[in-house]
Amino acid sequence: MTEKTAKNHSFQAEVSKLLDLVANSLYSEREIFLRELISNSADACEKLRYQSLSKKNILGDDVDLKINVRVSKKKKYIEIQDNGIGMTEQELIDNLGTIARSGTSKFMEAMKNKKETDVSAIGQFGVGFYSSYMVADNVEVISKGAEAEDSYLWKSNGKENYSIEKIDNKKRGTTIKLLIKKDADEFLDSFRLRSIITKYSNYIPFSIILDDLDNSKEKEEKINEGDPLWLKEKKDIKEEDYKQFYNNISFNFDEPLKTIHYNAEGVINYKALLYLPTNQPMDLFNSERKNKIKLYVQKVFITDECDEIMPNWLRFVPGVVDSQDISLNISREMLQNNPVIEKIKKGITNKVLNEISALVKKDNNKFLDFWKNFGAVIKEGLYEFNDHHEKILTLLRFENSMNKEFMSLDKYVERMVKDQKEIYYFANTDKDHIQNSPQLEAFTDKKVPVLFMTDAVDEFWLQNIGKYKDYDFKSISKGKVDLSKVGENKESKKDNDKKINNNINNLAALLKEELKDSISDVIISNRLTKSPVLLVAEESGMDINMEKLMKMHNQKTPDSKKILEINAEHPMIVKISENLSSFDHKKVSQVILDQANILDGNVLSNPTGYMESLTELFIK
Asked: Which residue has the higher pLDDT, 125 or 11?
């Protein structure tokens, strides 16, 4: 080697925090470091194999892509070497000194708050390399890009800094050398490494060679099976093989709830191996999370960044799709708007939805657990325009006002009362507020079921769908709701014709005048039976819950005043109406509005003023 000068660099602040967490806090399942590093090596080999389709000379004489794992107990190190795409100096800085993907802070927070076994989820956030520091005091990385002339050595003890220097090295690819900690010497045993590799990486589609450097009698040996699992006949595959492959491609450590393995033959031919997870991945609601589908063409990896092959609302489904009807040298850009990809997408989407529907019939309890984990994501499919609305609508499950069961739309229609013509729902992400809201009073009394829409996405898909079968969806917190003609116990003509006391009418007129800058109207409520007041949105306005969601995300909302409903039979309202002349009109009006806001779950802008006015008005 010639004389070189190493350049020192500081880790990005977020990396430093992550390294400290990984090195000092997460000790269970430390064996996953090897899975992560082998997965990274396999990715490097897959990327190079893909590039070789269009760049014929990029492989040179080194055409056999593989991964070598070497161990020396005497010298206390492990090496993982691949002859894949390699990295340039800048790529070493970008990939090992910086975390570009979002969600890392969420990952670190989740790691601190969850059980130690959740360390297995580290790969979900693209930070797998840093798992090296669970077992190593120092890490060295030698890398040479496939089209680069120079090689570089990256070194770090996983603290605050790392160094990079140019070295003499002619071999393409990346070698990672781990100088093992004293308390991690179990990983210096070749039999231990063999078991880890076969457990996690048996179906990596490149040869994994294990070499015990201390034992000259031991020959280098390929220890992974390597043959693509998705190309095998189902009868030849064991359940543990399916599970291992699921864990390997998804970075999930749960049992797959359902394995979907099939061949599609016809106009478009492809093989698919897909999984329904049991547990919810931590990054499921990360806005930048991509699907976990790997696309192959005739066993050749093409990309794992093909958003067009699986709808985003099924992004929790990991798997592999292998088609012979796509050109081998297709570019990632050409995958967009590709008619073959579009047909495959439609096929696997229908297949997944059919399998979920089958689960409903086979084991409803398992389905409900699955729905609680993934229902909010699936409902995103109703917000976009596609051909799957009908199937998704049959899967929907909601908590409801009648019982503690989760109710389907079909079950709701069955339980509709006589002459009910709408599907009533209450949208609010605060479940406790829903259960105790005055909005429900009349519905509870008349035993009219109301569906609880508690996911933020509900407000959006409802605008897109509008109705189910012959029934419109109707928000109980928006516009007028007339239950007088619904159910067995209809109000009599006498009840309908009863006159509202003039005192109540006078109070309504007073409130409308005093609160004209805050509300659009005051009406006598026909839905309140226990509470004194209520705020509802106008029929043509934005639903109250939608407005709250928009404001929560700093989105501009149109200026919309609410309707104030008053309960003409409530003792407080009756007392105020009978003693209007003795009250300060401005103060009593504001107290009534403040009460309506409290019942609606809103924070008062002046709670002290409310308490002072309440005391002055009623405690004399």
From this structure: 11
